[in-house]
Amino acid sequence: MKKKLIAALTACVLAASLAACGGGSSSGTSSTGGADAPKEEAAAEAAEEVDYGSGEIKVWVAENVQSFTDEQCQAFLEAHPEFSGYTITTEAVGEGDAATNMITDVEGGADIFGFAQDQLARLVAAGALTPAGDDAAWITEQNDAGAVSAATMGGQIFAYPITSDNGYFLYYDKSVVKDPSTLEGIVADCEAAGKGFYMEINSGWYQTAFFFGTGCKMEFETDDTGNFTGANMDYASDKGVAALKKMIELHKSKAFNNGSSVSNAANCAAIVDGTWDAQAAKDMFGENYATAKLPTFNVDGTDYQMSGFGGFKLLGVKPQTDPGKLAVCRELAKYLSSEEVQVARYNAVFWGPSNKAAQQNEAVKADEALSALAEQLQYTIPQGQYPNDYWSISTSLGDSVIAGDYDSADDAKLLEALQSFQDQVAAIK
Fold first, then answer.
1. CA distance 149 to 13
2. What domains does the chain contain, in order, with CATH numbers?
3. How high is the pLDDT of residue 403?
4. How many angstroms separate the first and last alpha carbons of the chain?
5. Which residues of the chain fall short of a pLDDT of 50?
6. Which value, in Å, is the radius of gyration of the alpha carbons in the chain?
7. Which of these, 370, 352, 394, lies nearest to 205 by C-alpha position?
8. Global pTM?
9. Hey, which of 127, 278, 337, 407 would disulfide with 160, CB 3.0 to 4.6 Å?
10. CA angle 210, 369, 264 (to 5 degrees)
11. Which residues sit opposite 292 in a β-bridge?
12. How much is the pLDDT for 226?
């Protein structure tokens, strides 16, 4: 199967042709150039078509989108007869397993695979991802900033975003919470109504809503093999103290309940949770169901916007030795991450699009949970790769808050506690 010119091939052909005529006198060059002009034109015309070759392209995606992806892959082949030398097979491999399998055996892994953004560094270090190349500008133009950031490492884009739908925001009962814009207002409304406010503050995932909100940083460094070598963080600072003070204040409220699952919430008027609990939240709140981005919070007279982690699903393309196959894989990844397919995927399995135009689709915009999350993701950072011990250390910090260990601590004591926390996290290997 043939397609258009590959610039490098043309350059090589023309360079060889010019080299053959460049060694004589000026009159000889002129004469040879005139005589060889038809040859150069023929060479250029011959280079205008390239054989994409043939073979199999293996695609790994999560089980609940396998059949959908298979249908889309077949539609892609029907729309591109120039790629008819290829067959595409899809296999059900979850995002976490896909990354682990690719790192373990790059050569035996899929040509295109779905993965969560927190696996990007490991996959790049393992040589399991090829940079997006000329598609980088298209990816940046088409997708929201959070998704593009999630696909980027070291200034290079390595993957094709397909969702912006993993994160947390606020579900609330609008008959109780009159204004969801401030944490203080939400908690006051819950207290007045004798209702509960739920947030899981002993979780390293949800805690970042406070710490990132005040401007704290926490990034983990890895070596070329993906092993953790250190942490870049500043929780032991005035910013960290402000975040911890708000967590302490929240736990003291009679409305506070530590939790993030609607199914485990009772007498609830507001809960910080994710899109996976949207239907449960609708069932719980009924006609008073409402959603919003996370609120602001105030510490010592300064307002902060609650932040946190954002989560994204990405498609990666494995490096290929055959440039023709690589070109087909990139075109397929581009198609599977396009506006058209992202809207179709939402309609099929309700995955929230990362494509900016798809986010404006009427059905997507009508999804209250996705709309709230899309607004919240503007204030979050993509979750990177975090070591297992970070999560247990964060749980201990939150447990201490909930137990009241810091209820009477001054700023100096809180800074001391955060320094201890930071030292433990920085020592993780």
1. 39
2. 2-50 (no CATH), 54-166+311-368 (3.40.190.10), 169-307+387-426 (3.40.190.10)
3. 98
4. 51
5. 1-35, 39, 42-48
6. 27
7. 394
8. 0.81
9. 337
10. 70
11. 170
12. 62
- 3-state DSSP call for residue 10? helix
**Do the beta carbons of residue 188 and residue 257 sit within 8 Å?**
no
Helix ranges, 253-353 (H): 278-285, 323-336, 339-349
- Tell me the CB-side half-sphere exposure of residue 7, using CA atoms within 13 A: 0
Backbone φ and ψ of 297, nearest 5°: -140, 155
> Quick one: pLDDT at residue 141?
98
**In 3-state terms, what secondary structure has residue 353?**
coil
What pLDDT is stored for residue 9 in this prediction? 36
Q: DSSP labels for 172-197?
A: EETTT-S-TTBHHHHHHHHHHHT-EE
Is residue 367 within 8 A of residue 269, CB to CB? The reply is no
Amino acid present at 319: P
**Tokens representing residue 245 in the block:** 């003070």
Q: What are phi and psi of 210, to 5 degrees?
A: -85, -50
- Other beta carbons within 10 Å of 33: 14
β-sheet bridge partners, residue 113: 60, 316
Counts of helices then strands in the chain (DSSP H, E)? 18, 19
Dihedral Cα 389, 274, 350, 359, nearest 10 deg? -100
CA atoms within 13 A on the CB side of 219: 8
Six token digits for residue 315: 């498609």
Residue 237 near residue 261 (C-beta atoms within 8 A): no
Residue that has been written with the tokens 């088409």 in this structure:
142
Residue 387: per-residue pLDDT: 86
